Amino acid sequence: MTKSVAPPRVVEIADLRRIAKRRVPRVVFDYIDGGADGEVTLRENCRAFEAVTFRPRCAVVVPSCTLRTSVLGIPLELPLLLAPVGSSRMFHPSGEPAAAQAAGAAGTAYILSTLSGYRLEEVKTASTGPVFYQLYLLGSRDVALGTIARARAAGFAALVVTIDTPVSGLRYRDVRNGVKELLSWNPWSMLPFVGQMLSRPGWLAGFLADGGLMKFPNVVLPGQGPMPYADVAAALEQSSVSWTDLRWIREAWNGPIVIKGVHTGEDARRAVDLGANAIVVSNHGGRQLDGVAATLRVLPEIVAAVSGQIEVLLDGGVRRGSDIAKALCLGARAVLVGRAYAYGLAAAGGSGVARAIDILRTDLIRTLKLLGCESVSSLNRSYVDVPAEWMASDRQIAITSGKN
């Protein structure tokens, strides 16, 4: 662990956020930190954890705790996976390989975004643990099929299909920071916004030494090569995934498929019917449709909807080990963390990612001991109190599914 992220300087994820904010330009930090529109969902993802309170078993001696679990039958040393975060190479030149390496060293899985600055083969090689591939249908069906074949050949353990991005959400911070102008390469358009880069000389030196603005080597366009960074928003609008796409994706992949971006019990049941092996309750970290419910808030509904047929994962707002415990109590198999480790990557590269994982692991162990629970597999709803209105929807799901 480097001194820059060691205690007492860094004791919680918020400390990594603070260091990241000082190290990278505002446009990069706000890409990590920001959400869509008024950022209501972004805030609610975190606030929802505050609404759930613990019911500990006191006078229980727990000398050690077991964090081990499995996802899709894959053994993991702790119930968190690193979520797909696009453009990670912008945060730090070590980017995705450093995050994958830290995940593997911790005994857990890393999920690589389609919008990676590194070739998927390089990222897979960097990790000693399982690596999943997150799929956008960028470019065309043929481009996606080519990437799926590469991921299969490289030994990726699962395919994560994101379904909540028919267009990119409107993020006011990105507009105000001049993302469009900076990507235009028009000097006069760029001029009002370049000062934020110059104010972070350490980041700028690393960025330029790394070759400047990256491309996306896992989206290889016919006759053009890797997709340029500037084409992302337009490409997303032309690459919406539908439920019917899952049929040819399954034929091409022939391995575990995870559906990411489920908000409702109805969509959860549809994922089950189409043969998904797991789902991720996700609102894209509040970066897409603002005003949707916090993921923890809808987790009980979705757990009730799938009725144990497939595994349910959750992301959004996880900043502490106690957040992980609450999600597991409400039925999640494991959680995905995105911003928590992205702050660490922006703050200190791979050391920052490792520190983020260590903070969450240590928090979770302490939470289990204070709850009087010796294993994450023993966590259930009896360990928490939940607002009554959260339970109404999952009870209704159970009734309409004939499982009351």
Descriptive report:
It is a single chain. This protein has an 8-stranded parallel beta sheet. The protein has a two-stranded antiparallel sheet with strand order 1-14. It contains 20 helices and 14 strands. Helix 15 (265-273) links the parallel strand 10 (257-262) and strand 11 (278-281). The protein is globular, with a radius of gyration of 21 Å. The protein is α/β, with parallel strands linked by helices and 404 residues long. It has one domain (3-172, 231-400): Aldolase class I (TIM Barrel), CATH 3.20.20. The model has no long low-confidence stretch (mean pLDDT 94).
Write a concise synopsis of the structure shown.
This protein is an alpha/beta fold and 404 residues long. It has 20 helices and 14 strands.
Distance between the first and last residues' Cα: 51 Å
Q: Helices and strands: which structural class?
A: alpha/beta
Q: Trace the largest sheet across and list its strands.
A: 4-13-12-11-10-7-6-5
Q: Main β-sheet: number of strands, strand sense, barrel status?
A: 8 strands, parallel
**CATH class category name:** Alpha Beta
What is the second-level CATH architecture? Answer: Alpha-Beta Barrel
Q: What's the total helix number? A: 20
**Name given to the CATH homologous superfamily:** Aldolase class I
Mean pLDDT: 94
